[in-house]
């Protein structure tokens, strides 16, 4: 997995990197679910997400916010993220399991902020810094 | 202290105009020398960023629990002119009306000495906590609308409390400008199964003992006395509030461009208060704030039922001392440079602290000022303070909201393991109950500023005065 948690006193600041935007989106989602539920490896429940936004940073924000909505509304913990980013559109297939308080332990992510530089393209791919309110 | 910051009082510091480009007013914050080492450069920049927003009045303010957040710093307070000013979710946060409620009881430490553990376990069973928690109550869409319109009063009407609970709350437990039509279907879907649940992170329900009275006259008015057992509830608007913030942040981002507002940080997205987008956010935010008041009302009801069941005490013997919001924006009247004016006050990690004589106070608190509730971190004291005339003059009637973090989650987890922390707290006489020990470590007392030092600053600066110190005996966490 290509992400680390950076020190931030109040919230959770993540750095995610990947060769493609697909990887960056998937790893940001994986990291967010790890904060909320710890690890998870099953995947009977399948959901799809299709979104479009004005720019890539807004798209990532909307994508993660949509996952927060789905997990909270349906009590599903997503474990695998098959993501396809094309321009300012994302299509993703998510696999997960029903939330189980005995299995899943973490903290609630209240929201995805617009703080930080967003997605930056470098020589070896993309780097993202993103702040979650917890 | 950081370069470019001027001292303007024993506890007060100023960020002058020009610290960053575009500041319309100076920044002011309250801090002791002892806490100066915890001040992050990022928090100062955020405080200065707020000073660039249109229509900001007098100062961009921060309380001594200031720290680095997103948009506004945590501990930030800013008032905006109703004609020229803006409203911003970045000045409220995702957890709209996250707040604190204090409930008194006739019990003493001796009364609960034998079955304290059982009491905490019963509370843990009665109040759904943690990630994924669901309410025992199943609300219809219509009931949710009523709840968002009237807040805690909805709970009282359903039999989950007493009329006197309402007058002992900021805004009487419900903001008047709520507009449930501005709350999305998604927010409703998240909110319906969660009312009456505690949440996770730093949210808690704590059994406390009043250890010390520091201002007897106010303590008498608030009905607290030494040795008394009381209960503190710290929770917010749950998924509904989070979704309201997420939804409107998107709308206000576009509005920022539409109204040609130039901002140094995307997270400060805002709209004129009296614009369609500004009014929609305000109406949705007020609805979420009311949801949070109803949520704390239901948690208090569950608490009272447990106490009634275990000790046979009646509701009337468990009065609510007060309820304060610490993430909210409100229309209030304040005196600025000798002139009375209506302003939109944003408090993000800050508490209203209205002084004696303020019209929103119930008659019994009128002479001593509004109760202010400052939760400690797990294992450290909480404080009851009173609002002051000085707060009305200097901080738009505002004070601190809590301890404020000094360690990140990762640092906190490195410093102590959950199990060790539970054992350590047990030795100190504090029984902790949570779903998982791992979550405890992130909220370790060492991760927070000393709440005693934070309240010493606000007391020293006179923006609220210490009334009582409460120590934890038991706590349930998410």
Automatic annotation (TrEMBL), chain A:
Pfam families reported for this sequence: Archease
Molecular function terms, GO-annotated: metal ion binding
Keyword Metal-binding in annotation: yes
Ranges of residues in domain Archease: 4-134
SUPFAM superfamilies: MTH1598-like (SSF69819)
UniProt keywords, alphabetically: Calcium, Metal-binding, tRNA processing
GO biological process, one term: tRNA processing
Record InterPro entries: Archease, Archease_dom, Archease_dom_sf
Protein family according to the UniProt entry: Belongs to the archease family.
Protein name, as recorded: Archease
Native species: hydrocarbon metagenome
From TrEMBL, chain B:
Enzyme Commission no: 6.5.1.8
EC class of the enzyme, as a word: ligase
GO BP field: RNA processing
Reactions this protein catalyses: a 3'-end 2',3'-cyclophospho-ribonucleotide-RNA + a 5'-end dephospho-ribonucleoside-RNA + GTP + H2O = a ribonucleotidyl-ribonucleotide-RNA + GMP + diphosphate + H(+); a 3'-end 3'-phospho-ribonucleotide-RNA + a 5'-end dephospho-ribonucleoside-RNA + GTP = a ribonucleotidyl-ribonucleotide-RNA + GMP + diphosphate
Cofactor(s) recorded in Swiss-Prot or TrEMBL: Mn(2+)
Record keyword Protein biosynthesis present: no
InterPro entries: RtcB, RtcB-like_sf
Any GO molecular function: GTP binding
Keywords: GTP-binding, Ligase, Manganese, Metal-binding, Nucleotide-binding
PANTHER family: RNA-SPLICING LIGASE RTCB HOMOLOG
Family indicated by similarity: Belongs to the RtcB family.
Protein name: 3'-phosphate/5'-hydroxy nucleic acid ligase
Native organism: hydrocarbon metagenome
